Every structure is written in C-alpha cells, then in structure tokens.
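B., you asked whether I could sanity-check this one before it goes into the benchmark set. Here's the sequence:
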Amino acid sequence: MELRDYVRILRQRWILIAVTVLLALAAASALTLTTTAQYQSTARLFVSTSESNTTDAYQGGLFSQQRITSYASLITGEEMARRVAEELDSDISPRALADQITATVEPETVVLEISVTDASADRARELTQTTAEVFTEYVTELETPPGQTTAPVKASITDRASAPGSPVSPQPVRNLGLALVLGLLLGVGIAVLRETLDTRIKSPRDLQEATGDAPALGHISYDKRTPKQPLLSSLDSHSPRAEAFRVLRTNVQFLNVDSAGRVFVVTSALPGEGKSTTACNLALALADGGFSVLLVEADLRRPKATGYFGLEPNVGVTTVLLGKVGFEDAVQEVSPRCALMASGPTPPNPSELLQSEAMHRLLTEARQRYDYVLVDVPPLLPVTDAAVLAAQADGALLVVRHNKTTSDQVEAAVDRLESVGAKLLGSITNMSPTSKRASGYGYGYGYGYAPDASTVVAEPTQGTSRGRRGGRRAAGSGGSTGRRAGGAGAPSEDPFGGPHRRHQPGEPERTAQAERPIAPDETAIEDALTVDPDGRNRPRRGR
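And here's what the prediction gave me:
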C-alpha cells in the first residue's frame, strides 16, 4: 500500500477508528473507576560495616555493596513476611504479605528502599515501618558469626516510613492516555485489515486489476431517482447521469470501429448490478447520437427492459426463435432510431434456445439492419446464457456495481467469458459515488453543467422523439400495424430532417457528430436569430 492508500482508509473508515478509540477509553475509564485505590509507603535503610581504619572501611563498603543485593531479595521473601505478621499479630498469610512488599537498591550505593502497598494509607505506613525494623534485626541475626555477639554488618533505618498522601494506583491520566494510544493503533489496524480483506470494487485500479486491464468505458453515478425513473427520457438532459451515458456512448463508438454492424452483449457478474437499465439507456444515448439501435431483450429468465419502456412483452425473441413470427413483426419502436425486441414468453430451456442456429440467424439479421445491436443477457455467474451469446457477438460489456461486486466475482465473470472464447470489450461501473472522497479516487461526475435558467429558450412541444412509443406494437399474430424502427425497405422518418437509413457500402462513414440531432433549445435559438452579411444578429421574421 502507498501513503495515499492509508490516507484513503483513514478518511473512509474514520468512524470505525473513532468507535474503537471510544471503546478503549470507556474500558480504561471503567477499569479506573472499579479498581481499588492502593497507597504506598517507603522507608530507607543504610547498610554498613563496623571497620575503623580507612582501608578496612573501603573494603567494608565493597562488601556491603555485594551484600545489599542479597538483602533486597530477602526482604521480599516469605520468612520476612512471617516475622512482620507475627510482630503485628496479624492473621494475614505470609505469601499475601510478601506480594505487597518490594525492595530496591539505589545503584552504586548501599542504600536500600523498602515499599509496602496496601488499600489503607495508615496500614501501608505501619507495614513499611515494621518491615524495616524487623529487617534490621534479621540482618544482625544473619551476619553475627557463631560464638560472637556483634555482627560485622548492620542495617540502619535512615528514613522512617512515610505517610502516603495520594494513591499510587489507579492513575486516571496515565490509563486514559494509554487507552487513547492503544485505541488509535487498534482502530487503524482493524481499518487496514478490513480494507485488505474487503475485495469489493471501490476504485478504478481495483476494477482494472480484476478485469485484466480491460478498458473502463464509463462510470454511471448513483442517482436515488433511478428506481422510479430508470430511463434517461425521464431525466433532465443536462443531469450528471445523462452526461455519464453520453460519455459511455462516445467510448462505445471506438469499439470494433471496422465492423459495419456492431453486436454487443451487456451483462454483469450477478443480479442487481443494473445491467438492464444500463443497456436501455445506452441504447437511447446511441440513438440520440444518430445511430440506429436495436435492443434485444435476451434475458429470458428475468426480463426487465420491456417493462421500462412500457411495451408489449409477449412477442419477441422466443417467438422469433420458434418461428411463430418474423423478425420485423417482433420489433417494436422506442424512438425513430431506437427499437426493442422483447423477450417474449419465458421458455423452459433458455440456454438451449439462445445457443441455437435460429438465434445466430437473428443476430446476423440484426447486424445487417442496425448500426448497433445491444443484447441484454442474464448475469454471467448464475447461468450460462450470457457466455453463450457473448461468443456469438462482437464482445461483452460488463456492468459492475460500485462497492458491492467483489474482485473475485469480476474475475470469475471474466474467466467465464474467456472459457467460451468471448471477448471482454470493457467495463461499466454503475452506482458509483458522486464525490471523489466517497471512494478515495472517485468515479463519474459529481457535478452538473446545465445552462443558466435565465438563458434557456422554451422548448417546442412538437418534434421531440425520445420516449414516444410510435409505430407497431407486436401483439402476437394479427397484431396492430404501424411503423417499424430499422426495418428493411421501410426506413423510419428522422424528425430532425429526412428519412433515416443505415450506412451503405461506398458512402462516406458517418459519425455521431455528423448525425447528432439538433436539440430543441438549439432549434428555438436558430429560429429566433439569423445573421446579417455584415455579421450582426437580427430577429428572424419568418421561416
């Protein structure tokens, strides 16, 4: 991980870190409040020898320094504790009392410190003083040679036991400070561990690694209105989500540029990632860009596209594959340049139908009739339908839901495509956050670029095409007649000037920019103004 990765983790998971710190502080506070206060009293002893001349005194000092370490060990022994308990006539056990006594030697000296800790300040002082007095007698007893009455070494009390004024434990400031440091370390550690174990796709780098460097074609930002308004036709043309699909349209145009008719499968790893809404809106965006588009609803298990457009679902792919209706009769018009072939009745064997020769002929005919054919198929991992159709198409567009789809799932979906020889053309991130801070690096657009409301000219009420359901609605045998989108021999009328037809051999290649329809507000502005030969604008008086 790089430094920016750690910074991103801290910004994303600061709540987890804060909760961990608060829990650590709460635990330290509870421990501090429930711990019994302990008081400590200290007495000091001086160990010396009884030599008189200087030389003997020096040697005696060295002897005392060697002895004093042994004395410190004796003070904390059970024998000393037993003698102190007998002196005080206390029923405390020697082992328990020994645990309360500590002895330390001041470095390079013959000074010995005795400390006793107890829950009572007065008792701590009494125990300390008694221990010091008993020990001086104990040293004399130990150091007196047999047959003599005086010992060459003696221990003298220099500082009597002190009266403790405040408890030595617990220490609230120290405990809370340690809890704060440990809570921060623990919180950051948990955050980094969770980030390491979390394999959900949250950044472009995660997606690139999971797809094997497949190009990222677009990032569709999250819009809470999507469940009620899934199609672009119900959104403002300058909304961030609409702009994201325009960017996706531009990137899709550079896929398989040498192919006359391009067939792309739109799929995902698992259900609930937004593949159907992405396919529908990409079809509308390509149609708005001047291309003829057919959306084939090949998700025969859970079809959704027909419901989004509000068209007839009973005639479509399955009825064409079974030979009950022809290709043209199953096509329903969404807009003058966009058509839909519904899924039709749900068959008992979707996979067998989709890999049949009839399906191959259907895609071949659709390729000849339309600039783009988008095939909405089931997810890759639960069933094999998507992989079967992807092998027959030019490739697959994989929709990945931000912060939900895992890298393992994406890798498994890519492997499923590669196993049948299908090509992953690119990925589309759906429901990405609108701000960079939300994902560390950010996807999509978190801003809009709509025109100033004061400069917008009212749109004309006629001539708009998006969202109209004109033409034929296939309704089984003997269905109603009408105009078909993209049908051979019956080109649809372009509401922005002349009939629309596909590119023919020998003609200059069309581009989306060349055939981009004039937006209603641009038409109104063109009607309102004209240009004099001298370059000045003047109102147009008539058309």
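One thing to flag: The chain has 18 helices and 14 strands. Otherwise nothing jumped out at me.
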